[in-house]
């Protein structure tokens, strides 16, 4: 089969690292990068480190409003699908690249497979929620990371073609465990040791584009009383500079002089080393909530809801929103239980997906 896989944003490169390797053993893959993420550290660095095949096509759509960005992807993808006539299109997760890939394929009646199907935050204010709902309703093969995701689909009437295969991000972590053993260069450069810092990431629009929420998070991080390592997504760097009046990009890092050590986005393996060595993870990322769980690090989620409810149910993750008071209280007192059952599969989701693709 000729399968067109669509990637565009950082978490999709990580997921494709697991799936492309397996996919190419049985099928012809046409790997399409929409260009949604384009900075070296947000994109190419992941292809290099995770040995992801070079994309056959890069649409170079870049940044823009949701409408403009998605429209550019739709136009580009439609053209490629017409020219290349793939038998199936594979989309990952919940970004605008996922939405465009699913929609462009469906309009041409090309069957769609959705990896990471069935996740719900039940917050339609999130662009990701709209993207994943639409992708799930378009797809005819839905690969879910958990039984809860299967239930969400059933509640929306989707029961055909649904498979609980586990999470492909667990596959990547399993693959990466050896490479993680090297000591962290970032920690060395910051003069920090494992166990001696918290790790924070913020990139969701609901936090970066809401000055009150961002201020609450920054107030908490700067009052934690311990070093905080914070790799910055470009939009967060921008938002922090705006909110702290450090608009000049040639100036010091945002939050310079505080306990928060802002750094450039880091590679996947370096991030896993940083997670493993952290006392605590504070994040609004979906992927990091799971990675913190797998690496047995307690997690505070800087949101009001999460799609990864199992990590909360197990007591290793807790929702703290963006209020400084709650974040600080939980950062001090949150203690996960000794129990740590496996979640989201056995690290062999990609193999199952390839078998099911036929
Ligand atoms: C996207 C996804 C989000 C995912 C995240 C992973 C959507 C709606 N959101 O959010 O679900 O968790 O990717 O990181 O698809 N920028 C750069 N360089 C880049 C990429 C982005 O400077 O390489 C800046 C631009 O100012 C851009 C902003 O970041 O406008 C936001 O980028 P965008 O691709 O729109 O969404 P993300 O916030 O990255």
Question: What this model shows, in words?
Answer:
By secondary structure, the chain is α/β, with parallel strands linked by helices. The protein is built from 16 helices and 13 strands. The strands form two sheets. A seven-stranded parallel sheet has the order 3-2-1-4-5-6-7, with helices on both faces. A six-stranded parallel sheet has the order 10-9-8-11-12-13, sandwiched between helices. The longest helix has 19 residues. The mean pLDDT is 96. The structure holds uridine-diphosphate-N-acetylglucosamine (UD1).
Percent in strands: 5-15%
Radius of gyration: 20 Å
Write down the secondary-structure element order. EHEHEHEHEHEHEHHEHHEHEHEHEHEHH
Which cofactors or ions or other ligands sit in this model? uridine-diphosphate-N-acetylglucosamine
Structural class: alpha/beta
Number of strands: 13
Helix share of residues?
A: 40-55%
Q: What is the overall pLDDT average? A: 96
Termini separation comes to 8 Å
Topology:
Elements: E1 2-7, H1 10-26, E2 28-33, H2 44-49, E3 57-58, H3 66-84, E4 88-92, H4 96-107, E5 112-115, H5 127-138, E6 141-144, H6 147-155, E7 162-164, H7 168-176, H8 185-190, E8 198-201, H9 205-208, H10 211-222, E9 228-231, H11 234-244, E10 260-263, H12 268-277, E11 280-283, H13 286-294, E12 299-301, H14 309-313, E13 317-319, H15 324-333, H16 349-357
The protein binds uridine-diphosphate-N-acetylglucosamine.
